[in-house]
Amino acid sequence: MGKQLYYQRFRQAQKTTIKYLRLLFNDHFVIFLLIAFGAGVLGYREVIQRANYQFLWHSDWTRLLIAVLLCFGLQFGQLITYFKPADRLYLLGNDHMVSRDYLQQAVTVSFAFAILWQLVAISFILPILFKMQLLTTVKLASLSLFLFSYKYSLLLLAREKLLMKPRLFINGFVQGLLRTIVPIVIIWLILVIGDGGLIIFSLVWVICVVMLAMFLHVNDKQSQQLAIDWLTSIAQAQVHERRILHFYATFADVPTQTYQVKRRKYLDYFLNRLTKRRDMMYSLYLLRLARGTELLSLILRLTIVGGLLIAALSTAPKWVILSIAGLMLYLVAFQLLPLFRETEQKKWTQIMPIAIQSRQRAFRQLNRHLMIMVGGVFVLSAISQGWLMMSYILGVLVIIGVALDRIYLPKQLKMKRKL
Amino acid sequence: MGLKVDNLSGGYAGNQVLKNVSFTIEDGCIVALIGLNGAGKSTTINHIIGELHPQSGQITLNQVNIVEAPTAFKSQIAYIPEQPILYDELTLAEHLHLLLAAHGQDNDKSWDRVSRLLNMFRLQDKQHWLPIHFSKGMRQKVMLVSAFMLEAPLLIIDEPFLGLDTLAQRDVVTLIREQAQLGHSVLMTTHLLASAAKFVDQFVVLNNGQVDFVGTPSALADKYQLSVANLDDYFDLVRKETGA
């Protein structure tokens, strides 16, 4: 039953993924993907080919950078359990089935996804390895073997954390080390050690991983003694689901996105000042934006990514930089829209005697303020490219900002209200 | 036999809620856990259903220890939470089939019993509905059918009457009594003391995470010089006593 249930949920999740991907590829994502991928490839090719970056290929720091990049890749591909809140009730008394079959399938499927991520990470650093003349078969095989097996071990440990009494207890500090410093050091060693030493190292490593896998294997007898920590397990699954939804929500209007709140007391000082003598609805939108977990971080991420791209693509054609600035500003305005819809759906909003026009006006005002801040960051990001480039970006952002405020938003707000 | 909670201390991470809680529920007994908000009722239940790990003490059900054999322990439990929990994607019938399978019960053999419960709660024609179409009361009824159909050795009900109409409340009492007659133990929480006193064998009173009183409804009424019919005034007396 455990395996079947997992695969049933896995299939259901794939259907949902396809649905979201369809939404994504019908939306801004294609434009973003084209521009971001194009810009990324352009920048990467520039670094690899340009003569003034030659010093990188002889530096020890580059080895460390590769280790950090691959360690970053290891952070992708979490344990996917598909647990649901109702499981704590309907699977109560089935801990043996869940720990023996269901979670084993979860590890297998998660590992398959994790391998894809690791392959992407390895492909990314291949040109650098080639430039550094480190691209030998043994090194590449050892590196791949280490990344795959290390990820598998991390998944086994993640599964262990879902048990009421983990057989291998690892505190938060050690977990942090295992996710960061330890893999960085080992990858660095793999890059430094010669081919002969690497073969011995890989053999020892494989033995260690096999021993760990055997120790954490759940057999029939053990499964009877293992209890699932349902609260932790369900919370873990929900965090994972939310992360995926965040990704889709960056580029498309995802209907089932959950809304969560964080107090963020440290923002109180600014919020008090910003909401003073402001329209009541403006204050409401601002407070909801500041305390919602999704939107604020999403907009911050977009601003940071946009700023970094503008700063990094100093030698790219002007149109690429201006397109990125414009697209990012548009995405910020687009991302803010659910805030209006969710606020409209609240009973409190509905019973408040405030005309819809006033509510829309307040929302547009907040959006304007946000666009000015984000636009300011984008303009400043181009500081190394000179005043002319900064004024080009400013000009484009003003035109797009006005179009968004006067045409796009009023139209969208009317539609959102009807939803 | 039955449920034995022995010197249980526990709570959530870094927060001890229960302090040396002890009580037993014999087979065929109905016990109500009572106390003001924050007294530790839900925490006690969360420990018994294995969602929290005891900091100290033992919980055994028919001599099966929850820490040593969690699966064997939990497979003897049917649980109705205070707030209905349902899968958005499953119909009513699919929920019931899933739960029967999870408890290793034969679907065909059990279905007569399930049909009787569905009829009793007027859900027979709603078997193919998704939870999104259920009212609050109907969701609670699905929880009740799910738990009663299992005929588990220990039935745990957190606030059994919440959101139910009077007919359904009466049916729940009948079903609880039937469970007890079958020799199964029942643990419930409630704030409606006078109503519960009519069918409960014992009250376990919790106050600040400690057991204040264990005894029959009439013993509790006597202790506070109340009649059983006026037991709902008990909390007023406690509030006056503690100044809460």
Automatic annotation (TrEMBL), chain B:
<feature type="domain" description="ABC transporter">
    <location>
        <begin position="3"/>
        <end position="233"/>
    </location>
</feature>
<keyword id="KW-0067">ATP-binding</keyword>
<dbReference type="GO" id="GO:0005524">
    <property type="term" value="F:ATP binding"/>
</dbReference>
<protein>
    <submittedName>
        <fullName>ABC transporter ATP-binding protein</fullName>
    </submittedName>
</protein>
<dbReference type="InterPro" id="IPR003439">
    <property type="entry name" value="ABC_transporter-like_ATP-bd"/>
</dbReference>
<keyword id="KW-0813">Transport</keyword>
<dbReference type="InterPro" id="IPR017871">
    <property type="entry name" value="ABC_transporter-like_CS"/>
</dbReference>
<dbReference type="Pfam" id="PF00005">
    <property type="entry name" value="ABC_tran"/>
</dbReference>
<dbReference type="InterPro" id="IPR027417">
    <property type="entry name" value="P-loop_NTPase"/>
</dbReference>
<keyword id="KW-0547">Nucleotide-binding</keyword>
<dbReference type="InterPro" id="IPR051782">
    <property type="entry name" value="ABC_Transporter_VariousFunc"/>
</dbReference>
<dbReference type="GO" id="GO:0016887">
    <property type="term" value="F:ATP hydrolysis activity"/>
</dbReference>
<dbReference type="InterPro" id="IPR003593">
    <property type="entry name" value="AAA+_ATPase"/>
</dbReference>
